[in-house]
Amino acid sequence: MEMHISNEAMQLLSTQEWLSDEVITAYFELLQQRATRETNLPKIKTLDTYFFTSLTNRGPSAMQGRFKKCNINELELVLIPVHYNNNHWALAVYDLKEGSIYWIDSIPDDKSTELELLRSAGNTLFGNRAWYLAEVDAPCQNNSWACGEFTCAYAESVARRAPIDFETGNLRDQLRLQIAQRKASPFSTGQPYSGVLRNLYRPRQQYPPSACKELEDVWITKRNLIDMRKFLQKTTQRKSRFLLKTGINKVRLYQKDIILILKRLERNSSGV
């Protein structure tokens, strides 16, 4: 399918304005075309800019139709451009080959809730597994408008399983040229990595699973731990219950459950 983009969208690439979903969609389509054309590259699926918002509003089960026309067993990577809060672009990645989920963002922040949502969706869409979740340490923007081209550059590197080590000075110019030429090209000279991808994409923040057996399918974040400790400090009644919220999951815990979780996390070196 040929990539289409309007003149108005192309003009954004010559400004210092936020990039529209039309620009992002066009570039991700070029990445999809390249992966189909060049058989030495990983098999990928790029999703549209509305996927994450739809996932947030409708839940994982409603997203299964997005994969009807592809063989999930043949996919290695799923690339998701995330329009976060309608004012920021970031990249989410499913590495189906290794069972990892990455969040790559040009403005670092705690994205544990978003990763938990992606983990839950991954279990529904691709089957239950012990997903490795991480926010990847990557080049960051130094202005208020460049998140779109950073997201495209992240995606281009990941689509080749290559290091995210591009120069940040002229990303928008490179993106404009690639879209004008209708051909996705590397933003850096980094070569594809043959090893385990999580060894290449070092985490800025990693989120381990709960150490509590009763909650082994629930991921506990730093925010959860802070709230649980506050609950213990304020609560004296054993029958009081704490509502643990992690992404789309909700679990009610008694005081003894929280104490057990905290003790096991303290003993477990993989704790938060």
UniProtKB/TrEMBL annotation:
One MF term in GO for this entry?
Answer: deSUMOylase activity
InterPro entries the UniProt entry points to: Papain-like_cys_pep_sf, Peptidase_C48_C
One Pfam assignment = Peptidase_C48
Q: Give the CC-aspect GO terms.
A: nucleus
Note the Gene3D superfamilies from the entry. Answer: Adenoviral Proteinase, Chain A
Q: Which PANTHER family match?
A: GH15225P-RELATED, SENTRIN/SUMO-SPECIFIC PROTEASE
Q: Which family does it belong to?
A: Belongs to the peptidase C48 family.
Name by which UniProt lists this protein: Ubiquitin-like protease family profile domain-containing protein
Q: Where does this protein come from, organism-wise?
A: Bemisia tabaci (Sweetpotato whitefly)
